[in-house]
User: Fold this.
Amino acid sequence: MYALDLGGRRRIATRPKAPVSVYGERIVGGYRIWDPFRSKLGALLLKSHRSDMGLSPASRVLYLGAATGTTVSHVSDMVSLVYAVEFSPRSMRDLLRLCESRENIVPLLEDASRPESYGTFLEPVDLVYQDVAQRNQAEIASRNVIRYLKPGGILILMVKTRSIDVTRPPREVLHAELGRLEGADLLDVVDLRPYHQDHWAVVAKKNR
Ligand code: SAM
Assistant:
């Protein structure tokens, strides 16, 4: 990942082998400018100054909730391999198009809440990244962390409080959800405003 100054604004970018725009993002001098409004991971990396996010060139990443590949494409620019799990066949069709031009994405049409169903395709990973709008977000993350994350590996969990409970205050929902997280110790919680409302990025480290 690179930090650039574009017209006096700090922007982050990734550098792909072939500088092709994936979701309409700008390309400047071979860099793909990461849109933090389109990608929660982009927002997190712009707001956080942590360096231990599990996104180094040798990393293997398990990405849960790949959708059409907006964020997956940037992750693919940075790491060695991305296992991209998505359960919507419609989104998967677009994701497969992205995979045709990139060799390091393994698309898996699977349900992230049933990690045992994709075990035969995976090796242990350095980062579990999750962005699924489900009621049991922490439970899904915990199951995948326990099964697939290496000891000392990183979990980045995007918590969308409105998908869990719209009737309670978002911060209360977030704290209850954090209490359900198993297998990883909390490092950081980042509010993703102004890029994403009622979304928090939770960064944790596998404890054993
Ligand atoms: N992470 C994507 C990005 O930044 O480009 C956006 C993800 S979108 C907010 C959430 C995605 O998670 C949807 O495509 C949805 O189909 C998928 N999803 C929700 N629950 C899932 C599950 N249990 N297993 C796999 N995918 C799931």
